[in-house]
Amino acid sequence: MTDTSPLLSLDYALLRFINKKAAHPVLDAVSFFMNKFRWYHIPLILIIGFPVFYYTTTPYAWYSIAGAIAVLLTCTDLTTFALRTIIKRPRPSDTLTDLRLLKGGGGHSPYSFPSSHASNAVGIAVFCFFICRWASVPFIILAITICLSRIYIGKHYPSDVVAGSLLGAGWAFGIYRIIVLLNIVY
Q1: Per-residue pLDDT tens digits for 32-91
Q2: What are phi and psi of 111, to 5 degrees?
Q3: Residues in CB range of 123: below 8 A, 6 or more apart
Q4: Is the pTM of this model over 0.85?
Q5: Of the chain's two ends, which shows fewer C-beta atoms within 10 Å, N or C?
Q6: How far apart are CA 164 and CA 128, in angstroms?
Q7: What would you measure as the largest C-alpha separation in the chain, in angstroms?
Q8: Residue ranges of the domains in the chain?
Q9: Residue 123 in contact with residue 32, Cβ under 8 Å?
Q10: CATH of the domain spanning 6-181, picked from 3.40.30, 2.30.29, 1.10.3470, 1.20.144
Q11: In a 3-state reduction of DSSP, which class is residue 172?
């Protein structure tokens, strides 16, 4: 760590605390599972979301919600890819030698800023919050767990996760506003 700015120092300190000091075998297992989010998010959304939204929204609203979530995931992925290509911040697991690294952390890109796992998870949670507040609780818990696990496994700095979360929340708000303005039934 050659940069001594207060924000970067805080970023490094939080990363090391979450990655090393909070280490526990149960958290290792949870983090490993949570970081497979790219592969199981669609079935998970269907399992959690379909019954909840089917019984709390108008008929056929499920199609609008599923379509909006697909657009949301596409937007967050494209934006994080573009920002990573421009910013090119290396992953902490590639630059810091004193981290605990867990297998199965994902990360197809060598760059970490912003976290696409965080942008996807928070985007879905915020969008669901706008649609049906009480039904969004499982998604909010899942998003928090995914965000923390990205730091825990050493793939992201806390600022990567915060930036990804803000990006996902921003896209969720924007897509929700478009749905409201176009009067799409949900």
Answers
A1: 666 665 555 556 665 666 666 666 556 666 677 778 888 999 999 999 999 999 999 888
A2: -105, 155
A3: 72, 73, 76, 167, 168, 169, 171, 172
A4: no
A5: N
A6: 17
A7: 57
A8: 6-181
A9: no
A10: 1.20.144
A11: helix
